[in-house]
Structure formats: C-alpha cells, structure tokens
Amino acid sequence: MSIINVDALEMAVTMVFQWKTFMWLAIGIFMGISGGALPGLTAATSMALFLPLGFKLPTPEMLGLLIGIYKGAVFGGSISAISFATPGTPEAAATVYDGHKLMLQGKGRKAILMALYASVTADILSDLVLIVVAPLLAIVALAFGPSEKVWLVVLAVALLAALSGRHLMKGLLSAGIGFFCATIGSDPIGEVQRNTFGLWQLRDGVHLIPLVVGLFAMGRMLEEALHLMRRKNTTENLKARIGDIFSNKSEGLSIREYMSCWREMTIGFCLGTFVGAMPGLGSTVGAFLSYSAAKQFQPHKKIGTGKLEGVAAAEAGNNATVGPTLIPLLAFGIPGSSSAALLGGALTLHGFDPNPRMFELYPHAVYALFIILLIGNVFNLGIGRFFALLFAKLALLPRELLIPLVMLMAVLGCYAYQGDSTDVWVMLVFGFLGFFFRIWDIPEAPLIVTFLVAPMLEQELRRALIIQHGSWFDALFHSNLAIGLAVAAVILTVMCVRFNVMERIADASERESKAATRDVSSE
Amino acid sequence: MSEHSTARRSDENVNWWKTNQGIAVVLTTLFVALLGYLVSRPDTFTPLRDGFLVGFFPMASTGLCILFSLIMLVDHLRKEEMPDYALLDWKFFGFVIIAIAWAGIFFWLLVQVGYVITTPFYLFGLIYALGLRPAMSAFLAAVVISGVILAIFWIIGAPMPLGPEWLMEKWGLPVL
After folding, report:
1. What is the pLDDT of residues B19-47, one digit of tens each?
2. Which of A44, A102, A326, B66 is the most exposed place for a label (fewest CB within 10 A)?
3. Do A167 and B20 touch (CB under 8 A)?
4. What pLDDT digit, counting tens, does each position of A460-497 carry?
C-alpha cells in the first residue's frame, strides 16, 4: 500500500474546494464557537444536534459542518471562560484561571486573542501529526487478525472506561449498556432478529442519531434545566464588562506577545497531542495537564496570576487533542472519544465505515477529511477573530430560551432524519437515560464508543471462533500479539485504577479551580 | 467529571439512596429484571448457524452490567468516597418526567395536527416553566423561535408536517 494516492488526493481536493463545502465549514465553525461560548452546550452536544442535518448533506459538506462545529466549540468555550469565569465547555475550565484574571485587569481582548491564536497554532500542528501518524498506524493495523482485533477493541473500551470518569465501574457499566444497545435489532452475521422486545420498529436496531441526540442533547438539556431551576443565572452583573473587551481602549495582542508564549504552546501541543491520541482522556485532561505542566516547568512566569502564558498553555492543550483524537478512529476503526465517535458515526452513515482499510477503500474521503481539518483552522481563526464580540454577547442568551430551543431541535432533528416516529421515541428514551448518566456521574463516551464498535467485536470474535473450530482459548490467544494486547488491556486498566489516575487529575483540577475562584472573588 | 462529582458526602447528612451504592442497587435490580426477561423469551435460546445462541450477546452484555453494578455496590469497602447527588430529589425527578412526557405529547400532536399549531405551544410551555416572565414575552419568544426553526428546516429541505393533513389538502397547501 503506497502512502499517498495521488488520484484520490486530486479527487479529494475537487470535492472539498467547492463553495458549498466552505459555506458549511463556516456555518459549522460559527455554530461551534456559538455553542462553545454558551455554557451547557459542549462540542459533543452541538455535534449530536447537527448530526441529522449532516446526514442529509453530501460527504464533504457534512465533514465541513461537523469538523467546523468540533473545532469551533473547543475554542469557543474559552470566550465565556475568560469573560465570565464560566467555561462554556469543560475543556475551557483551565482557561478560567489566567483568562478571567486578565479580563479583570482590563485585558480581556488580549486574553481571547491569545486563546484563539494558541488554539489554532496547536490545532494545525496536531492535525499534521494525525495526517502523518494515522496512515502509518493503519498499515500496522492491517496485519491484525480477528483475535487481535477483539483484544484491540477490549483494550480501547477498557481504557476509555477507566479514563472517562472517576469510577471505573461506572465507565464499564456505560460500556456494557452500549454493548447491550448494539445487540438490539439483528445479529451482524446471520441477520437473525434478536432483542427487539417484541417491537417490529426495532428490527433494524437502535439508530445512531436518536441515540446520540438523546444522550448528548436531550439528556444534557434536562440537566441544564435542573441547574437553571436551582440557581439563577449569575451572568447578569457581568453584562457591562463584555462591552469593555472590544472597546477602542482595550489592547489587542502583539506578535511579540504571541511569540513570547511559544514554550507554553509547545507544551500544550505535545501533551494535548499525546492525550488526544489516547482513548478516553479527552481535551479537558489535555488542557489541565498542559496548564499544570507549564506552571510547574516555568515557576518564574507566575502562571495563575493572570498571565497570557496560562491561557496559551490551556488552550493549546485542549485544541491539540482535536486532530489526534481521530487517530484511533482512522487507524483502527475505534473512536477514542465521544466527538470522534460522532464523526465516525457520521462517516458510517455516509457509507465510509471507519476501519484500517479506509485508506485503501476510500482514500478520497480520508484526504477530504484531512484537508477540511486543515482549512478548518483558517476558518476558525478568521471567524473567531472577527466575531469574538458577538460570541461573547451570545453567551448571555437566557437559558430559558436556549434549553427549549435545543430540546425542540432534538425532537425535530430526529424526526427529520428519516421521517420515522420511532427515532423520536428512541431519542426520548435515551434522553431520559442520558439525564441519569449526568446526574449519576456515569460517562457517556464508553456507551457511544462501545455501541459503535460492538458489531465489529461480535463479528471478529465469531470469526475467530469459526477459524479456530470453536475453541475459545485458541480464538482469543491465537498469536503473541493477541496475548500482548490482552495483557496490555489488563495491566493498563489495573494501573489506571490502582493509581487512581482520573481521580488525581479531577482532584488537581478541583484544587486549581477552587484556588482560582477564591482569587477571582477576592479581586 | 461533571460538577456533581464535586459534591461530596458530608458523613452525617447523606441519603444512602443517593450514593453510588444506592445507584448500584437500582441498576442491579433493573439489569436482573432485564436478564430475567431475556431468559424468558423462547427465541433467546435458538441456535444460529455458527453455534451461538440468538440471545448470547444480549445476555452476556446484561450479565456484565450486573457484575459491574454488584462491584459498584461493594466498592466503598475498597476506597470510594460516596458522592451526594444533591440534585436528585423527587421534585426535580418529577420535572424531568414531565419534560420528557411534554416532548412526547408535542411530537404526537406534531404528527397529528402539524408544526405550525403545536410548536409555539410546546415552546411556550417549556419557556414559561423554566421561568421566563411575563407570559406574553415567553409566548412571543416561542413564536419567533418556531418561525426561525421552521425556516431552517425548510431551507435544508427536511420534511415536517406543517398542519392537519385534511386542512392542508382542502386549502391546496403542501402537507410537508
């Protein structure tokens, strides 16, 4: 297999360089930054909400829309983090520490621009890592047989479960529920109906769109509604400050200031890229790790006291995860995060099943994805730069309007997907489930990822058993690689639990957060 | 890592049913009932061509969920600090049930009588319940949002029942 298929690359360029693709990319970035700036709407929520629309668009336009939303949302969270000390998305929480202090010093505009430039810089570099690494890993993955694939899926799901939240069992439960949901419909080899609860409407199984819209949009909005009913929005008294950000008196960011943060951006890029490529960790962890590392390695810069360096490290750290989170998806067909799962699901709906052979079977689609990822950064920079004030104001949109709007779009989007009422009822069931996931602190990512990879797991396991004439031991431990992957799955999961990795990261984040809140309120 | 996880137990004032152990009891009960249902279905034990039972994977996944719930039930003996899920009380639980039911009723009516009549009322109900006052502002907001969303769906060409079929046909208007 050659590394670059020139014909496919030409085809991809032709597909992407159309005004409609650019239009949907711009819409995606715009919606993503808006969603990110609105506390309560995460990247996954916005992507899930627009997935039914993406299904109706041609592939490049769908990729433009979803990638735009993803990139935009990861940056957009920093706008409300800096403006109101309320991160629009969880990944922007680390930006609050220095960003909001800069805002209080009258340097809000500088902080937002630093966040934008650091985000785009790290994003471009991490996209390049994806473009180089994913095809190479896919070549390695082609050597995997059924046994190895089974263990690879187990390894990814175990890691995802262990690293998605504080509690391993909750992550595994989420994965178990995802596996169960994937068995509804018909078995993937014989097409025999099973687990339909006697409902003919479920004979085709649970569709991806109602599942993700229910979990990520309806479930989250129900939770937001409860928050709204419990406490009044505190952004009221901050309205006046927004105007200050972009007044003529407010300072912009000089090239010298941007360049002076190169060390923090490098730390953010390196750690964010590593974290993004690991299943389960995600951009929130990327931001916190980068911020903490920058603070620790450079104590003389006094990060945490309202420094641009702190904003640069956190924002580079979270945006550097955007490209690499697609590495496991494109190389092995296993999404490493909710957002990657949503993008993978969208590709599947368009007939491009993510797997290691993707580079052989539909190289034009992969190249189109790469090109859109890179061009998306330019759009993110332009739209973020020129509409930042609008996005900051948008963050003041009353929750009383936002929550019903999202709920309405969830219902209508699921119905518009294929005009089938069942999808709406399924979405409502998953909305209810998603609400309890949020309330009970059960991560959603293992559910959605396992739901997507379960058919592959089942097929490969059954294939391995057929090859090994029904011997479970031979099917599972057919080669040294399979044994190695099995051992790695066990050791890594045990290590994550033994050393309480996620708990430590969460506790460190909480400590930082409390310190920042204390400092901000004292100022 | 939602913000609930930050709300930790204060030893003397915690409702057991709001802790991980309480959740584990609820989930274990649900999954055992689900497994019971699967076992009671005759087609679960029908063999497939490769020797697997039709219900093997559904039962395996349910079994795993029971195992994980049971481990969660005893996990506090290892180290887990129990979070207090302060949000979860009957009043809010009732709100969630009503919100889901409201969406269900809205959708049922949407299919029967169309978007134009149902959507502003659905939105108004939600906006008002969430606290936007006065009622007239809430209703106007509902009408405006309904119009904008309809325009978006019309632009992207997504099918949406606009009004009652008999009325639309009588007036010679498109149903979708």
Report:
1. 888 889 999 999 999 999 999 998 889 88
2. B66
3. yes
4. 999 999 898 888 999 999 889 999 999 998 888 888 77
Residues of chain A found within 8 Å of residue B27, distances taken between Cβ atoms: 173
Which residues from chain B sit within 8 angstroms of residue A405, using beta carbons? 123, 145, 149
* Residue A193 parent element (H or E): strand A193-194
Contact A76, A32 (CB under 8 A): yes
Give Cβ neighbours of residue A263 (< 8 Å, ≥ 6 apart). A294, A298, A309
B68 with A218: Cβ contact below 8 A = no
- Residue/partner pairs of A498-501 with CB below 8 Å, 24 or more apart: A501/A162, A501/A163
CA A145 from chain centre, in angstroms, equals 29
Residue of A nearest to B72 (CA): A169
B111 interaction partners in chain A (CB closer than 8 Å): 421
DSSP string covering A245-313: HTSTTS----HHHHHTTHHHHHHHHHHHHHHHHSTTTHHHHHHHHHHHHHHHH-GGG-TTSS-HHHHHH
Write the ipTM.
0.89
**B64 chain-A contacts, CB cut-off 8 A:** 172, 176, 179
Q: What is the pLDDT of residue B154?
A: 80
Which of B 57-96 lie inside 8 A of A, CB atoms? 57-58, 61-62, 64-65, 68-69, 71-72, 75, 80, 83, 85, 87-88, 92, 95-96
Specify the range with the lowest mean pLDDT, choosing from A117-126, A207-216, A385-394: A385-394
Contact A187 B80 (CB under 8 A): no
| Residue among A272, A217, A284 nearest A47 (CA) | A217
Contact A135, A410 (CB under 8 A): no
